[in-house]
Amino acid sequence: MSEEKKSLNFLEQIIEEDLANGMPKENLRFRFPPEPNGYLHIGHTKAIGISFGLGIKYNAPVNLRFDDTNPAKEEQEYVDAIKNDISWLGYTWANECYSSDYFQEMYDWAILLIKDGKAYVDSQTSEEMRIQKGTPTEPGTNSPYRNRSVDENLSLFQGMKDGKFKEGEHVLRAKIDMSSPNMLMRDPLMYRILHKAHHRTGNQWCIYPMYDWAHGESDYIEQISHSLCSLEFKPHRELYDWFKDNVYGYSKETYPLVPKQREFSRLNLSYTIMSKRKLLKLVEEKIVSGWDDPRMPTISGLRRRGYTPASIRSFIETVGVSKRENVIDVALLEFKIREDLNKTANRVMAVLDPIKLVITNYPEGKEEWLQAENNQEDEAAGYREVPFSREIFIEKEDFREEANKKFFRLKLGGEVRLKNAYIIKAESCTKDENGNIIEIQCTYDELSKSGSGTEESLRKVKGTLHWVSMKHAVKAEVRVYDRLFLHEAPDAQKDKDFMDYLNPNSLEIVNAFVEPSLQNAKIGERFQFQRLGYFCVDNDSTDNQLVFNKTVGLRDSWGGN
Questions:
Q1: Whole-prediction pTM value?
Q2: 473-519: per-residue pLDDT in tens?
Q3: Domain named tRNA synthetases class I (E and Q) anti-codon binding: which ranges (predicted)?
Q4: What SS3 state is found at 335?
Q5: Residue 61 among known ligand-binding residues
Q6: What's phi and psi for 274, nearest 5 deg?
Q7: Which residues pair with 464 in a beta bridge?
Q8: 203 is in an annotated binding site
Q9: Is 392 exposed, middle or buried (0-12, 13-18, 19+ CB in 10 A)?
Q10: 260 is annotated as an active-site residue
């Protein structure tokens, strides 16, 4: 029986219609066009997944193009991070391109637009231009410089390029329609003066193209068939087409294919901000340790926290492609990493809040190595040996002197099984001068060893606890992360700054003990700490100091299920 055919999303339908209407399949070409002014975040993964996913589906090339038109905010560090993130997600680009590669060609086209009376140099201040542009309900008014002669415009534009003017003294604008209902069509800026070195072109240029001009013409030069972008660019489509249609007349022999812009909804995630400007503020004000802080929604932050490429790709596939904006619950992302790590992460034992437990009838000085299954979800994962001795650590919260019948952990007079080991019974406990329990005394049933096949080993008790042998325990720093923001939509509140919703308890550093099998764990390795959650080895780990990041708990503690 053939697998049920998956229905096409609306972007795939557009492409199928274009192919049905005669577009050669070999003309299909896509791109992912980040601006190198920050690190990629989880919101970008949707655009990445759409463009590269279409490339895979249609066996078409996908360019990675950096729209690097603003040297004031762009850095090589961001270029390198973006390439690293996309590769880590498992995607391969056909060509690595830069809008800065096309600066000369775009400049030449701007000259032709000036000669055709479709662009002019404006010398108003930015405030004068803002007022003159009108409002969404009132038309704009023409600039007093709108009707400069072609020769004057060419002379001024050449002077701008040659560095003869200060920043803000002149700009180049397209001459379109100051009364257009679409304010983006009211003589938009094409070039501004910036006396700043570019990370690739150095000081070769001191005029830089505006995003709307550079983005569309870069698509055109690269002969992108379908320019796919998020919904906020829908009002820009009219301008995208105006630039494209006017330039096409100059270069149709060289670039015969005309790109088509189409928009999809952005990925918005609860309890998360997606603005690179606001994420940069968190970095600059040292609210977080950097762009790759595990609390950040950046791809590098998620990677450091322990997320896998497979979990993020599955998340994007589940979210799907739509035309309407919506907010995705961050719990879906957390579910996806749990789902993936449940299959792939080895189970180990770690105690984050330790209390000493002594098995009084276990021989002093004796130790034994018990067999423990690495991952019951993966038969190939095999087994490891875990040391057991008279004195062990358990979690403080796993013991109470007295408890009701719903408490299935250890209480005085009660029994539990130690994972992979024996059934123990709590007999007494020791307290300090403040009444805090500092030690628990237990006895064990020596015939109840897990897997031994004895009648006693098959006896059922309701609770099973994880533990670590004190003698063999390895110290580790564990960083327990919570959500960075306490509000579901931290940057959507008009009367409050997003910083007001920062969670003061988003990071707790715990001095824990882990089983000795983790002594040689490698940076980036992921584990399930049994009964606690999923953790990975942080970049800060050294041979002398293990550091783990908590990726996610075993269940959604916020949703209550």
A1: 0.92
A2: 999 999 999 999 999 999 888 889 999 999 999 999 999 999 999 99
A3: 464-538
A4: helix
A5: no
A6: -115, 10
A7: 417
A8: no
A9: buried
A10: no
User: Which residue among 46, 65, 237, 276 is the active-site one?
Assistant: 276
Please count the other Cβ atoms lying within 10 Å of the Cβ belonging to residue 432.
9
Examine the residue annotation and report whether 35 is marked as an active-site residue of this protein: yes
Spatial contact of 79 and 199, defined as CB atoms under 8 Å apart = yes
Nearest 5°: CA angle at 277, between 219 and 80? 55
User: How many Å apart are CA 308 and CA 88, to the nearest integer?
Assistant: 9
Query: Which one from 73, 133, 234, 266 is the annotated catalytic residue?
Result: 266
Give the integer Cα–Cα distance in Å for 212 and 448: 72
Nearest 5°: the CA angle 42, 48, 49 is 95
* Domains of the chain, earliest start first: 22-264 (3.40.50.620), 269-346+476-553 (1.10.1160.10), 350-466 (2.40.240.10)
Q: Is 267 annotated as a binding residue?
A: yes
For the question of residue 276 being annotated catalytic, the response is yes
pLDDT at 3: 42
pLDDT digits (tens, 9 = 90+) for 263-296: 999 999 999 999 999 999 999 999 999 999 999 9
β-pair type (350-351, 507-514): antiparallel
Backbone region of residue 263 per phi and psi (left: phi > 0; alpha: psi in -120 to 50; beta: other values)? beta
Secondary structure E strands in 310-447:
327-328, 346-348, 350-351, 354-359, 367-373, 383-389, 391-395, 399-400, 410-411, 415-418, 423-431, 437-444
SS3 52: helix
Is residue 52 within 8 Å of 18, Cβ to Cβ?
A: no
Annotated ligand binding at 83? The verdict is: no
276 is in an annotated binding site: yes
**Residue range 343-352: mean pLDDT, rounded:** 97
Average pLDDT of the chain to the nearest whole number: 95
pLDDT at 315 over 50: yes
Q: How many residues does the chain have?
A: 561
- Locate 379 and state its tokens: 């038969």
160 neighbors 193 (Cβ within 8 angstroms): yes
Could you tell me if 464 and 477 are in contact, meaning their C-beta atoms sit under 8 angstroms apart? Answer: no
**Tokens matching residue 554:** 């075993």
Question: Taking phi first (over 0 means left), then psi (-120 to 50 degrees means alpha), and beta for anything else, what does residue 358 get?
Answer: beta
What does the DSSP assignment read for 132-156? HT--SSS-----TTTT--HHHHHHH
